[in-house]
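Final report, Chapter 2: Outcomes

The project's central promise was a pipeline that accepts a single protein chain and returns its three-dimensional structure in a standardized token representation, suitable for archiving and comparison. That pipeline is now operational. To close this chapter, we reproduce one record exactly as it appears in the project archive, with the input sequence first and the structure output second.
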Amino acid sequence: MRFRALLGMLIFIVMTSAWHPALAQETLQANLQAQLESELNRVTEHLDGVIGYAIKDLSTGETFLRLPDTVFPQASSIKLTVLLELMRQAQEGKLSLEEKRTLRRSEAPPGDRDPILGMLGDGTVSMTLRDLAVFMIVLSDNTATNILIDRLGLESINAGVTRLGLKETKLRRRMIDLKAARQGYENVSTPREMLGLLEKIHTLQALDAAHTKEYLAILRLNKDSEFHKALPDTVSIADKPGALDAVRCDSGIVEIGGHPFILCVMTTYLKSNEDGERAIQEIARLAYSHFDRLSRASAYGRIISDK
């Protein structure tokens, strides 16, 4: 009887592993996903503040979410929507990216602690709209951003986002408009919607191929962001960070061969800005490690090499 029981168990093991390989693979990957969930929870539980994120593997659809539909302030991450409208209007022939604008120091918003364009000269420097977009994304220059907002139209920027089905993503004020901010006019989005914005861009649902390429080329330029600080220099990252007091954000596409993924992390009510930055960096490292491992392994988890 004992022999028959052991034989039956052996047959069961052979049958489930040999005849149902997909089940075995799903079980292995489910365990890997659970490990990432656990590590992400560890990071969020130790942060003194509110944090949300949306992570999605663009090849498989695998998704990790925390407070995905909660509205967070975006700080400079909202500039992703300004860049999108710039490319959309260029695509439709409403403007040219080579259109030039002469810069005036009076255009620098009062209270801006880092007015880079204002240091270039008063009426002595001209830049194209593309140049201003690069300053907006790479250096997060607020003068460049406000010039673009005024040229594109705040209403047009929001209408473009709404057409993509994003209901909570709003550009409600120009940069460094402290009066509007005190009145509650904050630039906002949610982790799920910012992920959706980037996914629609990546899948050519927002722009044509040529302007998608232009959009992502600007986003890929190296910048001082939490994702860039956390991930290897060899990784291509198309992102836009944001920072205000008690707020830190970063949203972007991390391009790993076979498993590119979108990562949107938002924090607010931070007791420590530095802790918020470290939390974003740690989430980026965990997500990268997970998808990088998948990109190098077989469906069973083996990393195949010449050894």
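Archive annotation: The mean pLDDT is 90.
This record, like all others produced under the grant, will remain available to the consortium after the project formally closes.
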